[in-house]
Amino acid sequence: MSTFVEELLFPLSSLILVTAFYMQGQEFIRPMIRGQLVQSILLAVISVMMGIITGDAASIILAALLVVLRGFLITYFLEKGIMKSQVHLHEKHVSVAYLFLISLIFVLTAVLIVYSVVFSGIRTESITGNQGILVFPLALFFQGLFLIASRRTTYAQIMGYIEEENAIVLFAVFLLPIPLLIEASVFLDVLALVVISSVVVVEKFTHERVVELRG
Amino acid sequence: MSLVFILLIITLILPLLSYLGYFSRVPRLDNAISLANVALALYLYEFIPYAGPFYVDFTTWVFILMVTSIHLLSQVYSKSYFRNQEIWIGENLFNLLLALFTTSMLFSLEINNLGLMWVGIEATTISSALLLMTEKTETSAEATWRYIVIVSAGVTFAFISIILIYYSIGTLQISSILAMKAVPTLTLNVAVAIALIGFGTKVGVFPVHTWLPDAHSEAPSPISAMFSGVLLPTALYVLYRIYEIDPLRDLFVWAGVISVIAASLFLGYQTRYKRMFAYSTMENMNIALVGMAVGGQYGLIGALLLLLSHSFGKAGAFYSSGSILRYTGNKMIDGVRGLWKSMPETSSALLLSSFAVTGTPPFGTFFGEFLIFYSLFTVHYYAQLVLLLFFVMAAFISVNYNITKMVFHGEAEKNGEEEPVMSGLALLSSAIPLLIGIIYVVVTIGAL
């Protein structure tokens, strides 16, 4: 049972990366929110699987938190924000295909550098005993960073931030289970930031250079 | 349950109680409660060091004192600052967020767990983001968004550091980690280096400082004072606690020196006074970072002296800036002239605070910087010392040249009367670093 579950971890982690690239490739906001929903649910599934492998009940509670807070509440706030500010159309002047290619190159290069420079010298072993699986949270983290940097709308940047947080959770879940209290705080934290961002988004949907903020 | 534990819990609750006091019929009850918190912070000195659910040593105590004091000053100042002005988020929410912001900073300082410290630092972002947007202008909305995105991304990065520390040591309890004196490994090195980038984002370390000038210049002045005076030092404190686990002295000292150089260069071409003070904060935080990294008898004491004096001096600078902005409606350095005639009290406060934040003798900041420079000398970091001396001098000239221009050059138009509470608080806050400097001299001479 445990071996079968371990084997499933790789394809599921790959699917998380696929959702990340899917979000990067979207011009419209709503599909990005849905992509975030799927990514969070996949993360919850992986957390349950890690709970089965390690026999740690905290991972199951973590999965429940992921479903309730990221799967449901954050999606609810973001969708509600879209309806309120009528910004569900798309981000203008974005060459999605071009950015998608750049993001692939950026993520691959960043992961290669981090792995060869940092992780090659560190004796890190994931709970599954396979160090290679840590590639997925790293790639997800850099993809989140790229999403923030490459887009101008507040929503897209929120997605990038959530993606980064998902990467950290995945990293922690694979490397070792950190105390649940801290993980729970992290989730509430993201929720609060999304709520605040929803307030900001009403006032400022896109972000361009401002003369007064130069220098 | 020990008395000190209960007292520390009370320090966390009092800012929230002061918010409730705002609704009371008793006049100024909220300010009285915040003043009680300052008194309590002073009283805590009797109980240090303490390790339990909270961890408080002398370093922590200095930071607690800073946070409670600047909270009191900003709370009083904000009432006058926002008089006859609509607050976009509403007065109630503003006061509540200010209380939560203070509590989250105190929580980050006091808690004996690196993971929960991280949570506290994130909570400071959540509680302060909307405070920044109080005046609801296009620029402040953009600055708020940059603050949320850049700081959150940076602090998320810092969480990797927390995970790696837990992976290496198996605990996040600060007192246990410091007691066990962990053997430095490559994993710990990486964790501490990542913390420098992650928490460094909030401290204002170059090149991840970019949110700092935007947020400081666009926030209302009492909030700029909180950001500059205590938020950045709180993040620096957390970074210091991680640094203590595995001191990467060379990396931290060079990061500090390069950031001071960058801040000094940015200061050279600033055209807006609040933005100029923001870069001055970046400079001071990084000098303190150098002091904490060198540590020992001179480095750490120098850093604490610098941070304590800077918190009041910079609060004074932002309170003066707030008064000037209210009076002239102009954010540009070149747009403000002849303040000594039109706003005599505020211009005195501005001058004093300018001297205080640039390390002019005999302000406390001067002795703090002197001790840090001396600590560099004792560990033979000559190149870093020479670079610091040169660029700190350049920053001194940039800031004081601009301020003296604003105060003494040209003729000002009389737009109204100075608000006595605002200018009085600015003056009081700017004079405290001078007092700290004098006390330091008296105590040092006494010890000799």
What report would you give on this structure?
The complex is a heterodimer of chains A (215) and B (448). Chain A is mostly helical and 215 residues long. Chain A starts with a helix and ends in a 12-residue tail after the last helix. The model of chain A has no long low-confidence stretch (mean pLDDT 78). Chain B is mainly α and 448 residues long. Chain B has a domain of 201 residues. Chain B has a two-stranded antiparallel sheet with strand order 1-2. In chain B, helix 3 packs antiparallel against helix 4. The radius of gyration of chain B is 21 Å and the shape is globular. The model of chain B has no long low-confidence stretch (mean pLDDT 92). At the A-B interface, helix 6 and helix 7 of A face helix 5, helix 6, helix 8 and helix 9 of B.
Summarize this entry quickly.
The complex is a heterodimer of chains A (215) and B (448). By secondary structure, chain A is an all-alpha fold. Chain A is built from seven helices and no strands.
Keywords summarizing the entry:
heterodimer; A: 215 residues; mainly alpha; 7 helices; globular; B: 448 residues; two-stranded antiparallel sheet; 18 helices
| Helix-strand pattern of chain B | HHEEHHHHHHHHHHHHHHHH
N-C termini distance of chain B: 41 Å
How many independent structural domains of chain A? 1
Computed Rg of chain B:
21 Å
**Major beta-sheet overview of chain B:** 2 strands, antiparallel
Arithmetic mean of pLDDT of chain B:
92
List the topology elements.
The complex is a heterodimer of chains A (215) and B (448).
Chain A: H1 2-24, H2 29-54, H3 57-85, H4 96-119, H5 135-150, H6 154-175, H7 180-203
Chain B: H1 3-21, H2 29-43, E1 50-51, E2 55-56, H3 58-81, H4 91-110, H5 114-132, H6 138-169, H7 174-180, H8 186-203, H9 211-218, H10 221-245, H11 249-267, H12 273-294, H13 296-328, H14 339-342, H15 344-357, H16 364-378, H17 382-408, H18 420-447
Antiparallel strand pairs in B: 1-2
Helix pairs in contact in B: 1-2, 1-4, 2-3, 3-4, 3-10, 3-13, 3-18, 4-5, 4-10, 5-6, 5-10, 6-8, 6-9, 8-10, 9-10, 9-12, 10-12, 10-13, 11-12, 11-17, 12-13, 12-16, 12-17, 13-15, 13-16, 13-18, 15-17, 15-18, 16-18
